[in-house]
Amino acid sequence: MVKLRENFSTIIVALALSIVFSTICNIVGYNLGIAESLPGLLILSAISLVGYVLSYVVPLKKITSVLWISFIAIFVASPISPVAEQVIFHVGNVSLMALCTPILAYAGVLVGKDWGAFKELGIKAVIIAVVVMAGTFLVSSMLGDFFMMVFN
User: CA-CA distance, 44 to 69, in Å (whole number)?
Assistant: First the structure.
């Protein structure tokens, strides 16, 4: 419980920044206004916050916050949930790529934070990291294009 209190303000700030950046990405990249984006982003943030808190409150140590968040998201969007229609509608107004932007920014900050340790790994690690990032981007792009063709 002490660790939850220590990290709670950090997770609130991270969620708030994610909402702001994702809203900007939704507006700029996908022509979705604040009124369309904000309810879905607030729902996703609430799900994330509840899952994060549950990972500390529930004494099952093997269940991480990511798993709790997944359980909650599946439940609130499932047919047995009384709020499923609203959740699906509002979250459907949030672009997945708009959500990826802050996540990738956080990853960049983390890599930059440990840049000294990263450089100690040598040029081979840098080459591997660049190839992995490029490959991930290219494969994700191809999968996105494929699914857009299939579902449109």
Answer: 9
> Within 13 Å and on the Cβ side, how many CA atoms surround 7?
11
pLDDT in tens, 107-128: 776 666 666 666 676 777 778 8
DSSP letters along the chain, please?
-HHHHHHHHHHHHHHHHHHHHHHHHHHHHH---HHHHHHHHHHHHHHHHHHHHHHHHSS-TTS-HHHHHHHHHHHHHSTTSTTHHHHHHHHTTS-HHHHHHHHHHHHHHHHHHTHHHHHHT-HHHHHHHHHHHHHHHHHHHHHHHHHHHHH-
Max Cα distance, the chain (Å): 54
Ramachandran category for residue 31: left, alpha or beta (phi over 0 → left; psi -120 to 50 → alpha): left
**pLDDT tens digits, residue range 124-143?**
777 887 888 888 888 888 88
Domain ranges of the chain: 2-95
Query: Between the CA atoms of 58, 64, 70 and 71, what dihedral angle is there, to the nearest 10 degrees?
Result: -30
